[in-house]
């Protein structure tokens, strides 16, 4: 395109412009500006958030990115085997709707197949590098990762803590997807979310993500006395319902919505019995279907330190978890690691993604089994539906000495296993 336009310019002849430049020079300057300057006007570097994959299935995936205001874009993609053999893509999809936050559905994919893709935003086609993901298998064993609460502290940024977790996840080789327990950033704020996606870049370049909303998604960056925000950055970034489910190899994953903006203290939404009850009929439907296993995730923990009973607001969910004998439950919100067993069902608190550390303080419920604090890490879960076994390992990447400080974490390289438990998927 640039050569064609240059050719048109070369065929122009004087007269000269008032500034003394030949018109062909002026046209060249205009063309250069269109190519090189317009993208800079359309969006700054911080406007471009490298792609992340959501809504993964056996045959589809959604490619998301943030680009210039009301931009478009093109996705080139190919199976990894095709790309390796030919060093080029053989499929292309274009955006149909101009938007700042893009969510483009890729359909007709092969199951259990690795894909390479590259997004070319309309305002800056060179903004992003190649990235990859693998579609879900139809059957068999698979591994996923649970992370939660990566938000920065009062005296440190996400580079000081969450980055070590994200980079460790990025080194995983056999992970299919990431289950995120919420509190992506401290506030519903573009700059903080830009940092989150920047720090998470390595793991999101390889693994799709299934998010769960946390209370910080609603926090108002301008004033904590204000009511909760609409959680715009969360919705614009992920484009998923507040509660939803997905299946992998006949194992079900149920993502629940625990922070209630109608029950808040300033900008902080708490749990409420009304919100839990509103999802209970849907949850019952999700759990009643006979599957090879069922995992649930809710941001606020059912079981937590400092109390001997469950969060009473979440009792409707707990009743259903026990009635339908789920495989395991995950939560975040409290910034430490805890594991409980209730009627032999594991309940994990996985708030070790990098947020300000919480001390592990009793009393504890009777089902409390173990816990640790001031560690950075995630949970890696391997699921084998044929053998009816799930194995969850707490992967500790490093530790810090203070709850909220700018210290450089002490790292384990490779990471160490802090806790491990096996459990039946179907009971
Ligand atoms: Fe939280």
Please describe what this structure looks like:
- Helix 8 (273-288) packs parallel to helix 9 (315-323).
- The protein has 2 domains: 45-134, Immunoglobulins (Immunoglobulin-like, Sandwich), CATH 2.60.40; 142-424, Purple Acid Phosphatase, chain A, domain 2.
- The termini are far apart.
- Helix content is 21%, strand content 33%.
- It has helices spanning 2-10, 23-42, 80-86, 162-170, 190-199, 201-204, 232-238, 273-288, 315-323; strands at 49-54, 61-71, 73-79, 91-94, 99-106, 114-121, 131-134, 142-147, 177-180, 209-211, 244-248, 251-255, 260-265, 268-270, 293-297, 328-331, 337-342, 345-350, 368-372, 375-384, 389-399, 410-424.
- The protein contains 9 helices and 22 strands.
- The strands form 5 sheets. The protein has a 7-stranded mixed β-sheet, covered by helices on one side.
- Fe (ii) ion binds next to loops.
Notable features of this structure?
427 residues; alpha+beta; Immunoglobulin-like; Purple Acid Phosphatase, chain A, domain 2; six-stranded mixed beta sheet; 21% helix; globular; disordered N terminus; binds fe (ii) ion
List the topology elements.
Layout: H1 2-10, H2 23-42, E1 49-54, E2 61-71, E3 73-79, H3 80-86, E4 91-94, E5 99-106, E6 114-121, E7 131-134, E8 142-147, H4 162-170, E9 177-180, H5 190-199, H6 201-204, E10 209-211, H7 232-238, E11 244-248, E12 251-255, E13 260-265, E14 268-270, H8 273-288, E15 293-297, H9 315-323, E16 328-331, E17 337-342, E18 345-350, E19 368-372, E20 375-384, E21 389-399, E22 410-424
Parallel strand pairs: 8-9, 9-10, 12-15, 15-16, 16-18
Antiparallel strand pairs: 1-2, 2-5, 3-4, 3-6, 6-7, 8-20, 11-12, 13-14, 17-18, 17-19, 20-21, 21-22
Helix pairs in contact: 1-2, 8-9
The structure holds fe (ii) ion.
Fe (ii) ion binds at residues 183, 214-216, 299, 333.
């Amino acid at each position: 395109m640039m050569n064609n336009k240059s050719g048109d310019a070369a065929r122009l002849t004087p007269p000269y412009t008032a500034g003394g430049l030949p018109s062909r020079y002026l046209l060249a300057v205009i063309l250069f500006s269109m190519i090189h300057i317009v993208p800079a006007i359309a969006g700054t570097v911080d406007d471009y958030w490298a792609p992340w994959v959501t809504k993964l299935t056996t045959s589809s995936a959604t490619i998301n990115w943030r680009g210039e205001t009301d931009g478009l874009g093109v996705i080139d993609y190919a199976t990894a085997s095709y790309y390796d053999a030919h060093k080029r893509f053989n499929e292309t999809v274009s955006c149909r709707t101009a938007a700042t936050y893009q969510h483009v559905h890729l359909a007709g994919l092969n199951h259990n197949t690795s894909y390479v893709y590259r997004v070319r935003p309309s305002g800056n086609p060179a903004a992003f590098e190649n990235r990859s993901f693998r579609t879900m298998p139809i059957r068999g064993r698979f591994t996923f990762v649970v992370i939660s609460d990566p938000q920065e502290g009062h005296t440190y940024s996400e580079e000081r803590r969450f980055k070590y977790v994200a980079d460790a996840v990025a080194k995983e080789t056999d992970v299919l997807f990431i289950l995120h327990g919420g509190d992506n950033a401290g506030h519903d704020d573009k700059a903080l979310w830009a940092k989150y996606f920047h720090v998470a870049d390595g793991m999101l370049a390889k693994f799709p993500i299934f998010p769960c909303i946390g209370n910080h998604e609603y926090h108002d960056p301008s004033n904590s006395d204000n009511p909760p925000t609409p959680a715009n950055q969360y919705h614009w970034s992920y484009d998923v319902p507040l509660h939803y489910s997905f299946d992998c190899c006949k194992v079900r994953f149920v993502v629940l919505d625990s922070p209630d903006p109608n029950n808040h203290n300033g900008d902080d939404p708490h749990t409420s019995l009304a919100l839990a009850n509103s999802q209970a009929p849907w949850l019952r439907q999700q759990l009643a279907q006979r599957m090879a296993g069922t995992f649930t995730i809710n941001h606020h923990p059912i079981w937590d330190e400092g109390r001997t009973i469950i969060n009473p607001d979440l009792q409707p969910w707990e009743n259903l978890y026990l009635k339908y004998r789920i495989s395991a439950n995950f939560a975040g919100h409290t910034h430490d690691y805890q594991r409980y067993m209730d009627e032999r069902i594991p309940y994990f608190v996985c708030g070790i993604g990098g947020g300000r550390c919480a001390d592990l303080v009793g009393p504890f419920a009777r089902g409390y089994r173990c816990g640790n604090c001031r560690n950075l890490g995630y949970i890696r879960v391997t699921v084998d539906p044929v053998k009816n076994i799930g194995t969850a390992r707490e992967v500790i990447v490093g530790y810090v000495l203070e709850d909220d400080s700018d210290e450089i974490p002490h790292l384990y390289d490779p990471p160490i296993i802090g806790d491990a438990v096996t459990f039946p998927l179907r009971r």
